[in-house]
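note to self — DONT lose this again. spent like an hour looking for the file last time. sequence + predicted structure for the chain T wanted, 483 res
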Amino acid sequence: MKTQAEIVVIGGGIFGAQVAYHLAKYGRKDVVVLEKGEIASGESSHAAGLVTQFATSQAMLKFRMYSVELYSELGLFNHVGSLRVASSKEQLKELERSVSRAKALGLDCEVIGPEEAVKHMPQISKENLYGGIYLPRDGQLDPYITTTSMVNFAKQLGVEVYTNTRVTGIKLSPKGEVRAVVTDRGEIRCEIIINAAGLWAPRIAAMAGIHIPTTPVDHQHIALRAVPGHEFDPNTPCLRDPDNLVYMRQEQGGLVIGGYEPKPLPRWIDGTPWEHGSKSFPGDFDQFEMLLEGAIRRSPFLDQAGIITLVRHPGAYTPDCQPLLGPMPGVRGFWMLAGMSLNGYGGAGGMGKLLAEWIIEGEAPVDVYGYRATRFGNYYSDFVYAAERTCESVKYYYRLHFPHDEHERARPHRVSPVHYRLLENGAVFGEKFGWERVNYFEPGKESRRMGRISVSGAGRNRRSSSGCGRNTSPPASGFVCMT
């Protein structure tokens, strides 16, 4: 094993593979990738393999468009297309709005009506189908083959890869600069560390004195057998139905179905065990039942399909379900590429390319301020609070978001001395940096989510299940609108 390199990438999943490949492609060939197990043995081994270019964020849309282009050039992608359908009028309006922006950025997509959606995928029902988006250049890939191929391409460009090599420490200079990575096979002196360790990214960051709030949250997939007379051929588009909270892709005539459950379950909130690898856990049908019902609403014949397997596996999510990307102030030479669940293979190519360019050129070529690795305050060092907030964001990932929506879980976290007096007088609170502050007064208002009625703020316990609700000092700023 080498004892010195310019750049050490920690993590042999798709993100580590992509950033290593792009660094070498752009001339930085003194790169080492460290993987504690085998290549693609962590989160990457459990991906469903659906890849869409669609995104509401301009930066993420560009990342995904580049990823599909890259996979296609390397012969790793199957352009079966995808459908994103609207099972409500509100969803259709949101899709129409998003498509207008996506087209302006060059994405090949169009809004279609129910009849055309059924033409693309005859197995879906037109009941409560208001239309959708068709993306002909979307598709699917094999996660394991894609990751191992990207690693091999990187190796061909000069990158060295060490598997079954676990990082045990990080050495810093007295000024807080990266000096070396310590492993169970020896030490590698380096100038730059890229933390692409997936589920283990918080533990790697902690070795450099950094806290990052990613939480492992369980995600489930079910594989269904083909139903005679309703088989899906290999060129069937991938399907996403956000109103029914599910996504689907064909496999051997049947379907693989996943989605976003109403009660996501966190796992290992204080750190993923080093010994965890590619192991899946037994499925929880009670948790998954609502998603399967959603799939059956869209394709009623699925109630006749036999179940091959239901598996559960954790993925690393951030409290806002967006990635952690870029340098970490305070530790010169330490870069983040983590918290990538929900943005996996679709975002990996583009984000790997961006991070390589950022390291080489000294600035990001795209505005990624919303993904900066420092955006979460110190109050997220409370593991339970971070897990609660993360699970809520996962729950709402497929649901419509409305202006002025406020979080509901892990509240109140920090309150002023007059908080409960204001609450009794009809205050409706927002939250800023963990502090409860009054948005306006409206006695009797029950919902923090504009799109639906939910748990009453006035009826909440004064302390959340995470032991929050600390009454310390008033928030630094606030505002009130009297109506």
